[in-house]
Design a protein that fits this description.
- By secondary structure, the protein is α+β, with helices and mostly antiparallel strands.
- It has 3 domains: 114 residues, PAS domain (Beta-Lactamase, 2-Layer Sandwich); 280 residues, GAF domain (Beta-Lactamase), CATH 3.30.450; 149 residues, Histidine kinase-like ATPase, C-terminal domain (Heat Shock Protein 90), CATH 3.30.565.
- Helices cover 44% and strands 20% of the residues.
- The N terminus and C terminus are likely disordered.
């Protein structure tokens, strides 16, 4: 067909193609420019490879990630040569073999999505250590052959540091709180280390104080941390604990810090802010007094220790002479540790008062009541800093949900969920402390009412089954209904503790059997919880219901606990007129039994 003659025979047909050709050419060209602009604007590093691993294209994010301005010939190198220059390693630090490089895996056909993305560390061409999250997929031709690959690299260095810092901070708070709880009564006085003589052996209180400053320094990475009390009458400083000084400097600090007052270091305006509970930043560069103990610090973060309305001490931390910008996390943690240190001092004061009351044969009721009030302060003060630090962990999840970060891998979501679990453990710990204090003070109230024990147990079993995938909780009631006159909330607390213990002390998983039966002859309900876990050593079975007692084999398995749960279970069951005991074989499991009277107990509702 002569297309030329056809076009000439119809002027309209001949004119139309001349108009459409520029548009056809302009469309793909415009789209290409748009795609190129989008490609360059992506913040993550995007790399395109041929089948041999040579880089064929990369965006600005990729060039910045690698630091290509210092090595312009980098892209001409082979995959292995490039990998050697950036020193790829597993996040644990071991060298990453070529066969396990993410790019190699993608070129071999593996698809790395958000949930299977690879994380590794590398040193870019500027020498900067980085942690990289990499996803990617192979590029295939029409026949399905791999002809290249595309990788998307995200610098998650700061994000992982924030995650680790948040986790470390929460773990540090939990450790600090547990140290407070386990501090034995009558542990001794806070050491007033003044003068040049030999110091006495450290007391438990001083060891807790030292632990506080050690943990704070480890979490924040600062140079020095100190705790200093204020003498309430004279206003002079009194040393408690310090970390980050040389041995000679520490001896000088312990010996001489008592010569100074807080206003020797702080201007009136800063001191006033400190009095109101604010964490302040003190610039020491303008200090004129030559005898002040500053040890070359440039700026010092000062957190107040308050007992009610009284300033009783300060926590200070610094980074030496280096310039440092204090982050909100550092300020929050400093304030939280200062509050915990306040509780250490207050606990010591109460212990001293208790000892004096016993020595003078005074009634212990007032001291016990004050200890109960103190434990209420513990619960309140621990929840406040914990909520602040949990907020940082929650921010990571929220940012991801809003699309401001990469989709979390399963292990990352599990790690963040673990942070919430730590916080829940701390909250449960404070609740146990309050119940223990009420029991000791005779102020624990029961509110008994007719309650179907079968329904109550079923509710607890259903709730706790959702907390574990490795255990199967089997409930086998011998009766359909068993109504007792009990406090349902307190009895649910007992059952939750027993079943939670069965889960915790069965680290390998397995079945947990819960039974209920009615002993008509004895007019009692019999409840049992059986696990197949680590069991309890025979010589320790009689002590497991005492305060702060945990079986030795639990520590061998790394199972943590305060030893308050079973103590509270025994107290609550006995105050219902019942009895609790256990039978156990180490290495085979344990069974805990509860007997409760079917009739209303004769004991009053308030204990």
């Amino acid at each position: 067909m002569d297309t030329h003659s056809n076009e000439e025979s119809d002027g309209t047909e001949r004119h139309q193609p001349h108009q459409s050709i520029p548009e056809a050419e302009q469309g793909p060209s415009s789209r290409a420019r748009q795609l190129e602009a989008i490609f360059e604007a992506i913040a993550d590093g995007v790399f395109v490879y041929d089948k041999d691993g040579h880089i064929t294209q990369m965006n600005k994010g990729a060039r910045d990630l690698l630091g290509l301005d210092s090595q312009p010939g980098y892209t001409a190198l082979s995959l292995e040569e490039r990998g050697v220059m950036i020193t790829q390693r597993f996040v644990q630090g071991q060298s990453l073999p070529l066969a396990q490089w993410a790019t190699t895996r993608v070129l071999n056909g593996e698809v790395l999505t958000d949930t299977t993305a690879v994380e590794f560390t590398m040193r870019n061409l500027h020498g900067r250590e980085m942690r990289i999250n990499l996803s990617g997929a192979p590029i295939r031709d029409q026949e399905g052959n791999i002809v290249g690959a595309i990788n998307i690299c995200r610098d998650v260095t700061e994000r992982r540091k924030l995650e680790q810092r948040t986790q470390d901070a929460l773990h540090a708070l939990l450790t600090m709180a547990e140290a407070l709880v386990k501090l034995p009564q009558g542990s001794g006085e806070i050491i007033a280390q003044t003068g040049g003589g030999e110091s006495p052996a450290p007391t438990a209180t001083h060891l807790v104080e030292q632990r506080l400053v050690d943990l704070t320094r480890n979490v924040l990475g600062c140079r020095r941390v100190s705790l200093t009390a204020l003498e309430q009458e004279a206003g002079n400083l009194r040393p408690m604990a310090v970390v980050g000084l040389s041995q000679e400097e520490e001896r000088q600090w312990l010996r001489e810090i008592g010569r100074f007052r807080l206003d020797d270091y702080l201007a009136p305006a800063l001191l006033a802010r400190l009095q109101t509970g604010e964490v302040v930043l003190n610039d020491l560069s303008g200090m004129t007094a030559s005898d002040l103990l500053t040890y070359g610090a440039r700026e010092v973060l000062v957190a107040p220790m308050h007992n009610g309305t009284h300033l009783i001490g300060v926590l200070t931390l610094d980074y030496g002479g280096a310039a440092h910008t204090y982050t909100p996390e550092e300020v929050a943690l400093a304030g939280a540790v200062a509050k915990l240190a306040t509780l250490v001092i207050e606990r010591e004061r109460l212990l001293q008062e208790s000892a004096e009351a016993r020595a003078r044969e005074l009634a212990l009721r007032e001291t016990t009541q004050r200890m109960d009030e103190f434990l209420g302060i513990v619960a309140h003060e621990l929840r406040t800093p914990l909520a602040s630090l949990r907020g940082f962990a929650q921010t990571l999840l929220v940012q991801t949900a809003l699309g401001k970060g990469p989709q979390l891998a399963a292990w990352q979501g599990k790690a963040l969920a673990g942070l919430d679990l730590v916080a829940q453990r701390l909250s449960a710990l404070t609740d146990d402390l309050l119940d223990m204090a009420r029991l000791q003070a005779g102020q624990l109230e029961l509110h008994p009412e007719p309650t179907d024990l079968v329904t109550l147990v079923q509710r607890v079993v259903t709730r706790l089954q959702m907390t574990t995938e490795r255990h199967t909780i089997v409930f086998v009631p011998a009766v359909e209904q068993l109504v007792l006159h009990i406090d349902p909330r307190r009895m649910e607390q007992v059952l939750s503790n027993m079943i939670s213990n069965a889960i915790k002390y069965s680290p390998e998983g397995g079945p947990i059997e819960v039974t209920i039966a009615e002993d008509i002859e004895r007019q009692e309900a019999l409840l049992s919880v059986r696990d197949h876990g680590i069991g309890i050593p025979a010589q320790q079975q009689a002590q497991v219901f005492q305060r702060f007692v945990q079986a030795d084999n639990a520590r061998a398995y790394g199972i943590e606990g305060t030893g308050l749960g079973l103590y509270l279970c025994r107290a609550l069951v006995e105050r219902h007129g019942g009895r609790i005991w256990c039978e156990s074989v180490e290495g085979q499991g344990s069974t805990f039994f509860i007997r409760l009277p079917l009739a209303s107990p004769a004991a009053p509702a308030r204990f």
